[in-house]
Amino acid sequence: MSVEAGRGGRTRRQRVFLIANIVAGVVLAAMAIALWRDPGLAVRGEFERQRWALGADKHAVEIDGQRVVYVELPADRADAPTVVMIHGFTGGKENWYRLAQGLRGKYRLVIPDLPGWGESERIEGEDYGYLAQSARVDAFVAAVSKTPVTLLGHSMGGGIAALTAARAPERIARVGLLDAAGVPFAENAFGLGVLGGDNPFAVEDAESLQRYLETVFHDRSAIPSIPWPGNYFYIAQRRAQADYEQSVLERIGRSGERFLPGEAAESITQPTLLLWCAQDVVIDPSAMQAYAERMPQARQVLLDGCGHMSLMERPGEVAQAVVMLVERAQPQQRG
């Protein structure tokens, strides 16, 4: 090989390397612009990774003129019961993934982002309180299942599930309320903050993010890891929806709707699970007794060593309780 050819070869390699660096720079710049315009993109990317790891398929359906995104895991048997899971305030379908892992294969699992949250559509000025969301969940259940379902709800989602079960017993065969809102409970800092006009779940910076996580999780080992720069994008996303969060709290925490789920619970005759964690500082465990007084058929489960996020802190024990609920026989109607 001549000296000129060797030099030419090195030049070609240098050109390829230069082009590759330019392409990589363009891609990184495009990603940076996309993330700047939509901080939630990074968060959704991580959620997609979790969905793939779980093996869930993603779908969408229109409910009340709004696009509702949900994931679904099939059962091992075609005739297996369907379980629908409704997340809480500031949450999303991903909150259920740890629990879904323990139920995978036993039942058909359907897990939506409520309208207004996560990947589902949010319409400016729409009502996202208990009544409106209950009607949408009823329509969603009708759209995704031809047979009655077991409906699980966590926190705000528990209040929505209670209303839905009371209003649509022909579609809801069983109901599980996990750390559910919608009834009076013993006074605590969270409740007083909501009544005072605050959003105790607000996230504005790294400090408030840590406070939020330590409020909803008692078991620190169960807190999901949010490594940099994902924490930055999550904070930006939550800051962007601060006004929306306050508008929802106004409906479910400070309006005449706030105790509607508990009032409706008196009409629930389906098999019911009430599950709380003893260290829940958001919805005090006294709320479980308030619900139980309205539903004498309910089975009560109180777990120790966990907080508001029972479904993430104790997914194995919660899964066992859900299996017992699904397998329960239908009770006699109240007389």
Helix amount, in percent? 40-55%
Order of helices and strands: HHEEEHEHEHEHHHHHEHEHH
Number of helices, counting only DSSP H or I runs of 4 residues or more = 13
Portion of residues in beta strands equals 5-15%
Q: What is the oligomer described by this structure? A: single chain
> Which of globular, elongated, flat, extended, rod-shaped describes the shape?
globular
The unreliable regions are 1-7, 26-36
Average pLDDT number: 89
Distance between the termini: 99 Å
Q: How many strands?
A: 8
**Spatial ordering of strands, largest sheet:** 1-2-4-3-5-6-7-8
Description:
It is built from 13 helices and 8 strands. The protein is of the alpha/beta class and about 325 residues long. An 8-stranded mixed sheet has the order 1-2-4-3-5-6-7-8, with helices on both faces. It is globular, with a radius of gyration of 23 Å. The relative contact order is 0.12. The N terminus is likely disordered.
What is the topology?
Blueprint: H1 3-37, H2 40-54, E1 57-63, E2 66-73, E3 82-86, H3 97-103, E4 108-112, H4 130-144, E5 149-154, H5 156-167, E6 172-178, H6 189-195, H7 206-216, H8 230-240, H9 242-253, H10 260-265, E7 272-277, H11 286-292, E8 299-303, H12 310-313, H13 315-327
Helix pairs in contact: 2-8, 3-13, 4-5
